[in-house]
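Why this split exists: single-chain examples teach little about how molecules sit against one another. For that reason, every record in the complexes split bundles all components of an assembly together and asks for one structure covering all of them. Below is a record exactly as it appears in the raw files.
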Amino acid sequence: MSKYEIKIDKFKCVGSTLCVMDAPEVFALNGEMQSHVIDANAADDEAILHAAQSCPMNAIILIDRETGQKAWPAR
Amino acid sequence: MHTTEYFNDMMTRDVMNDPHAYYHKLRAHDPVYWNEKWGGWVLTSYNDIVKVLRDPAGWSSQRIKYLGEEMRPGDEIKYKPIFDVLANWFIFKDQPDHTRIRRLLNPVLTPVALEKYRPRIQEIVHSVIDRIEAGKQYDMVKEFSYLIPLTVILNMLGIPEADKDRDDIKYWSEQIGVLFFIRADEPRRREIACEGINSFVAYLSPLVEERRQNPKDDLISLLTQAEKDGVLSRDEVIATVVLLVFGGHETTTNLINNGSLAFIQNPDQWELLKQNPALVDSAVEELLRYDTSVKATVRWARYDQEVGGKLVKKDQRLLLALTAANRDPEIFPNPDKLDITRNPNPHVAFAHGIHVCVGGPLARLEAGETFRIMAERMELPKLMANVLEYQPAIVSRALNEFPVSWTTCPIAHNG
């Protein structure tokens, strides 16, 4: 099971699709052409963090399941 | 009641000086408006614009291809630099070429990757502010704003930052801007852009060649390495350097100018930022929304399709008025009010979809550091003109001159 709970900020996601290209087994576009999570456990933690960091809008929020703290973005 | 003639003329002095009033009227009249004079549809509603921006399969960005189709026989030779260089800008490409280049650049321009440049950006902002003297008049356009993003992008690319280099590059960029920003008042805009491109390419070619032989830790070397790896062509390397310099400063310059003016006109919001520096990121988002640097972008229909209840035919073009979307009252309550605490703020200043500005995170970082340090070290400047005029352009929101004066010197900083 992935270390992260993944959330998408719908007000920030612009549908750049960069996360989908980085981790297509985790992210896909919905009918609004925004990112959504199809399977949070389909890639390793490093790949998920990398995909979140590829977002130009910082629209992907990662929560550490163990601590409940936000792991990304830092600001 | 306004006439068709009023709505069709997007280039009047009134529209240039206050595009927001014009777009409010146009949105209320017809949010998907056929502008006969421009020869395309003008979209002003947020939801329609976002839908088009997020659908690259339906709407093409190949501006230079469509420009080519408008030209007369022989023009391809006359305007060769446009087709050799601007046609290789990935912002004017569709998938998969767009995505190949976007994915090469994106990793070095994400918010996390840009953090390493923050200290250098702070130094540059401080150095520009250090030169300000109390009581003197400055033109923010020519003496302040552009220095920050231009110095930063030259630094990142590994291009010399000496005054001569910077001044030449600024001049060539402005020449390219006459075409790119659609300076409709300039009949020679294609010729002028060709001059700028030729001069810029002549300057860059030996520099790029040198990096091919001796790569460094800079963005030109990243591009020459991609050429060696077979990801970019030789022409794409030069074109992408020109794009990064041009896109890397012209629009951010306008963000700093338009943002500074917004604060002068809304001093309560400046005070709020001074009291709460942590609001700076939210303030930058609001400045991007409130007086958007890139007023519009263009898309072409890849097939017959409906948008906002109108049938758009294949190859017809749409002007997506980002400025209008950003003040659509359906999305933004009290849209004409500058509110640096606005949340949520889903503006389209950098567009949406696959073409969302690759330099957006850099613009945010530069503008954030600029306004944060200005608020820390400076008072709000006084505007030294009664009327401000904007460049007559469809795309850019650019002041001709922005004369200001500070009554006190900037506070010294340690560093």
